[in-house]
Automatic annotation (TrEMBL):
SUPFAM superfamilies: ADC-like, Formate dehydrogenase/DMSO reductase, domains 1-3. It comes from Rhodopirellula europaea 6C. Belongs to the prokaryotic molybdopterin-containing oxidoreductase family. Keywords: 4Fe-4S, Iron, Iron-sulfur, Metal-binding, Molybdenum, Oxidoreductase. Residues 623-724 form the Molybdopterin dinucleotide-binding domain. CDD domains: MopB_CT_ydeP (cd02787), MopB_ydeP (cd02767). This is Oxidoreductase alpha (Molybdopterin) subunit. One of its GO terms (cellular component) is membrane. It comes from the Bacteria.
Length: 731
């Protein structure tokens, strides 16, 4: 644990400013880093969305300067020098596998295609021609159903659309993106409740609200720019209700560097902090709604006029016993009633959540319960209120919008065939975890990954490594090295170096979590060698399917051609066809609800009823574990070993309440083995952490994925990275 003199008592602040200068020195100068950050490109990290044609460090309401450590870290990583050929000759696969995620990220930029063949001890550099010949030759020899295509949310709409089109005209719907391992439960839950799978509000609605529920998330670390909006809510007298098993420093107090008063005095973020057990959210949400019902605070006319299922829903509220709701949430009835009373006074409430809600075996039900609670008081379909999943990757929502799903939306499917004459498969397609299962069994023989770290994002890391290593070929397009390049290597593994977003030779687009489409100008390449994602995909299309019906691959080298296709087939995206000429960034139609007219067939929202699962991990020697990101991390990418806001200096730890240390007969910083029926992690430091409620624990992702089962929410196919039952034994 950090020395007390180093202890951080708030998020942001002067440390964040100092960090900016530190990263500036790494790139050569603060001015050089500032100029890179200010280009007209969308931010590379989270889906809050920044930049675009207003310039970097500007949000959707025009606020400047808006900057966070995550965006600095991503930019500095892309400004690293290249990894030269001698590195590959002297560094073995075994040495790469021994490196931490941070060490791999800091090796430098990938600038040459490299190949590994099973039995070799090293990667070797190869030419682009060799890479294309190998990939196209292998894919041509396989049945399309023997392949899968995986997409990261950091890529552009253009690259995502083109690659899914290539996969489908090749003949497979095994097309999936990283959201299956993060927010797929949000999309499924929202679609089933309000008829649209994204946020129902815009950024300005968040800042107009008078009550914000922040459930199962830690934006102070993972989406820092949202803290400015929460500051505005607090300054107007609004309430911020945080629901999280862990008291996160930045959600208690945050010092926003761009605001002098907040920087000096700090902004109190949470007005109320509720700490249910991990997995207790569903019971808590129903408990709040039950209290509203018992005090006649439910907007019955709204439910009657605008919602289906309201009679069954109200009956379910009556049927729940308080004892069950208290036991399964870990929250007293009186506390649920006090939160309900706060909500009842609100005129404009926003419900936001992240993966603390979706990473459960009942993640879709969690999201539906949030939607239920919002509709209880008519808080969907009016300005300043609504539903707001806090998405991760900067373009994960856009990737999904432009067709990266196993089964295309019927409207896109029909438009592609009718307008362009392409021939598309009609199979259901496999989700990400199902593709991994088929790779392990040998049914799938090749994978193609547009960015990301598929190995690092998977549950049951041991299985993931075995499944990927069973492939004949795995192709990964990346800017830097990650653990997926060192573990689970296929019989033949090829890494293709790609340009960063602000190095693209032609403009690209991205979509924020608020359904706003931005235009990124691209810019000069920093290093020779990497190629545009679109160029790589179009070239592969030429080699693999030169006579594909309806497609001119030469034209597909140009992002303007791809945008024309997107604008003609993707609902709400019509303006994208001319965005490079008009420079007019736009809000997607049909997703923001300011009237209670929903995207369902009959225009009415849907209320869902649930049975609440028992709380897991209640055995004498058990803990409920959630895997988490650190403050120095973005998704699987680890930029810093320390977790500043939790005052931790390393990652090989399990944090638990001091009462649990005592209960398990352990002492602070004692070496332990953390294990369950899925896997085992020896040599872990058990640390007392008063901010997490007893019975619960946290460990860092992706390292702790070795303990996460492959069981997924049956509706969204999202694995349960939270609520993992573990045992801790002294070594």
């Amino acid at each position: 644990m950090k020395d007390d003199s180093m202890k951080v008592g708030s998020g942001g602040g002067f440390r964040a400013i100092w960090y900016t200068f530190k990263k500036g020195r790494e790139t050569g100068s603060v001015w050089k880093l500032y100029k890179a950050m200010r280009t007209r490109n969308s931010c590379k990290t989270c889906a809050v969305g920044m930049g675009g044609q207003k310039g970097g460090m500007v949000n959707e309401t025009g606020s400047f300067p808006e900057v966070c450590k995550k965006s600095l870290q991503a930019m500095v990583a892309d400004m690293q020098p290249g990894i030269e050929p001698p590195f590959w000759k002297k560094t073995t696969i075994e040495q790469l596998a021994a490196m931490t995620p941070r060490e791999l990220e800091h090796l430098g930029r990938l600038i040459h295609p490299v190949r590994y063949r099973q039995g070799d001890s090293h990667y070797e550099t190869i030419t682009w021609e060799e890479a294309f010949d190998t990939i196209a030759g292998k894919l041509a020899s396989l049945s399309p159903e023997e392949t899968f295509w995986y997409f990261s949310g950091r890529s552009s709409n253009e690259a995502g659309f083109l690659l899914q089109l290539l996969a489908r005209v090749y003949g497979t719907n095994n097309v999936n993106n990283c959201s299956f391992y993060c927010h797929q439960a949000s999309g499924v839950g929202l679609q089933s409740s309000v008829g649209s799978g994204t946020a129902t509000i815009q950024l300005e609605d968040l800042e107009k609200s008078d009550c914000v529920f922040l459930i199962g998330g830690n934006p102070a670390s993972n989406h820092p720019r949202l803290m400015t909006s929460l500051m505005h809510v607090r300054r107007r007298g609004g309430k911020v209700i945080v629901i999280n098993p862990v008291e996160e420093t930045g959600l208690v107090t945050f010092r926003i560097p761009s605001d002098p008063i907040s920087l000096l005095k700090g902004t109190k973020v949470a007005t109320h902090y509720i700490k249910p057990h991990i997995g207790g959210d569903l019971a808590l949400l129903w408990g709040i709604a039950k209290s509203l019902h018992q005090t006649n605070q439910i907007d019955l006319p709204f439910l009657q006029q605008h919602c289906n299922g309201h009679e069954d829903y109200l009956a379910a509220l009556d049927a729940f016993e308080w004892e069950e709701l208290e036991r399964k949430s870990g929250i007293d009835r009186s506390e649920m009633e006090s939160i309900a009373a706060l909500y009842a006074k609100s005129e404009r409430a926003v419900f936001s959540w992240t993966m603390g809600i979706t990473h459960h075996a009942h993640g879709v039900e969690n999201v539906q319960a949030i939607a239920n609670l919002a509709m209880c008081r008519g808080m969907v379909g009016r300005p300043g209120s609504g539903l707001m999943p806090i998405r991760g990757h900067s373009n994960v929502q856009g990737i999904g919008s432009v067709g990266v799903t196993p089964k295309l939306k019927q409207q896109i499917f029909d438009a592609l065939q009718e307008q362009f004459g392409v021939e598309l498969p009609t199979t259901e397609g496999l989700d990400t975890l199902a593709c991994m299962e088929d790779a392990a069994s040998g049914k799938i023989k090749a994978g193609f990954c547009l960015g990301g770290n598929l190995f690092g994002s998977n549950p049951d890391a041991t299985f993931a490594g075995e499944a990927l290593s069973n492939l004949d070929l795995n192709v990964m397009m990346n800017t830097t090295m990650n653990t997926g390049h060192a573990h689970g290597l296929a019989k033949e593994t090829i890494i293709l170096p790609v340009l960063a977003r602000d190095e693209e030779p032609e403009p690209t687009t991205q979509e924020s979590m608020f359904n706003f489409v931005r235009l990124s100008d691209g810019g000069p390449r920093r290093l020779p060698g990497p190629r545009s994602e679109v160029e790589i995909i179009a070239t592969l299309g030429e080699r693999l399917l030169p006579d594909a019906k309806g497609i001119d691959w030469k034209q597909m080298h140009h992002t303007s051609t791809i945008r024309d296709w997107i604008g003609r087939v993707v609902p709400g995206y019509g303006k994208i066809s001319s965005i490079d000429k008009t420079k007019e960034e736009f809000q997607i139609d049909g997703r923001t609800f300011y009237e209670p007219q929903f995207g369902t067939e009959d225009g009415r929202a849907v209320l869902h009823c649930h049975s609440i699962p028992d709380l897991k991990g209640t055995g004498e020697n058990e803990l409920r574990l959630m895997t988490v990101r650190s403050e120095g991390q973005f998704n699987t990418v680890v930029y810093e070993e320390e977790d500043l806001y939790r005052n931790q200096d390393r990652r090989d730890i399990i944090l638990m309440n001091p009462d649990d240390l005592q209960r398990l007969g352990l002492t602070h910083d004692q070496r332990v083995t953390v294990e369950n029926e899925i896997g085992s992690m020896p040599g872990i430091l058990a640390r007392g952490y008063e901010k997490i409620r007893p019975g619960n624990a946290l460990m860092y992702y992706p390292e702790s994925n070795v303990l996460v089962a492959r069981y997924a929410d049956p509706q969204s196919k999202t694995p349960a990275f939270k609520g993992v039952v573990v045992r801790v034994a002294a070594e």
